Amino acid sequence: MSKVLLCILSGLLLIAQAHQHHKKINFYQLERENFKLNLTNYGATIISVITPDKHGKLADIVLGYDSIDSYKNDTCYFGALIGRVANRIGGAKFTLDGKTYKLPANDHGNTLHGGTRGFSDVVWSVESHKKHSHVTFSYDSFENEQGFPGKLKVHVTYKLVGKHGLVVKMIAKPVDKATPVNLAQHTYWNLRGHDSGDILSHIVHIFGSHITPVDKLLIPTGEIVSVKGTPYDFLEPRKVGSKIHDLPGLYDINYVLDKSFKKNLSKAVEVRDPVSGRKMELWTNQLGLQFYTSRQLNATKGKDGAIYNKYGGIALETQGFPDSVNIPYFPSQILKPGEIYEHTMLYKFTAR
Predict the structure, then answer these.
(1) Any stretches that span the bilayer, and where are they (predicted)?
(2) What would the pLDDT profile of 122-133 be if each residue is shown by its tens digit?
């Protein structure tokens, strides 16, 4: 790369960063009767989700922090919108149209969740906010941001539906070049309450009969294997902790969802807490679901004085398959100008 081109790219990066510093960080509430959400445009992040249990008692069921500074220093991606490419890219590089793109190696020589400063660490613009309806955030990702090609326009809408329902809709449009896109919502859930301890007694039912196995650095091997007869089999509902100790300490794997292609959305997972009676269903139009049981939490200081420890929450990230840019027979995540990426999640909360 020429010195002139390097100077131009460096200048564009400084302009983009200066624009980021002038954007104001705010908080936004969505509310419908006894169902409430708090969000911020820093990382288009879900800060809290408050729902009733079977007795009508309200509790916040997502892990998070009290201050924006804590979110800025966060390494857990609590509640954040992840991009340009969620999950891992092996070797921190990929080749597209004959050109190799090198990315930040922020995870043991690989790229995780968009790089050192992905969409979870930028200030989004607020397009629209109606407290009893929705909030829409937007972000214009610039050329060569974290090494990715081309400009990308991104929107995410959090919308209340029904009595206790939430739709998350992510839309991305490349402006001038083909680019990989794989957005994800990275909230950690604890249906008993964010400060109630571990999630090992939560009952999980995953509508995915295959996984994409990974190597020791959590990069997919390229295989797609059945979960039957393994600790990954949640085809019948069972407790998270029932077979977790048959693994190297946690669940952190992509499930290949058993999609019903007759419908736009298919059910990906159900989670139920037997103590509070809360149940969460997650529906999606995506092909994959990352199931993660938060082993890295270790006396993490959370909101309201909470201390989060190992297995303190479950992350359920609907997505494309990890490292698809380097595994040709995985479904492609390459988006060309004129094409539109649409990722929909539907959460349904009940209690009984």
Answers:
(1) none
(2) 999 999 999 999
> Which positions make up the binding site?
87-88, 186-188, 252
- 170 in Cβ contact with 161 (< 8 Å): no
Q: How confident is the model at residue 249 (pLDDT cuts 50, 70, 90)?
A: confident
Rounded CA-CA distance 185/316 in Å is: 8
> Quick check: 74 and 83 in contact, CB under 8 A?
no
Could you read off the pLDDT of 171-182 as tens digits, one per residue? 999 999 999 999
- Please name the residues in contact with 172: beta carbons below 8 A apart, sequence gap of 6 or more: 83, 152, 153, 154, 155, 181, 183, 335, 340, 341
Which residues define the annotated binding site for beta-D-galactose? 87-88, 186-188, 252
Give the whole-angstrom CA distance, residue 328 versus residue 177.
20
By annotation, the residues acting in catalysis are 186, 317
Contacts of 261 (CB under 8 A, 6+ apart): none
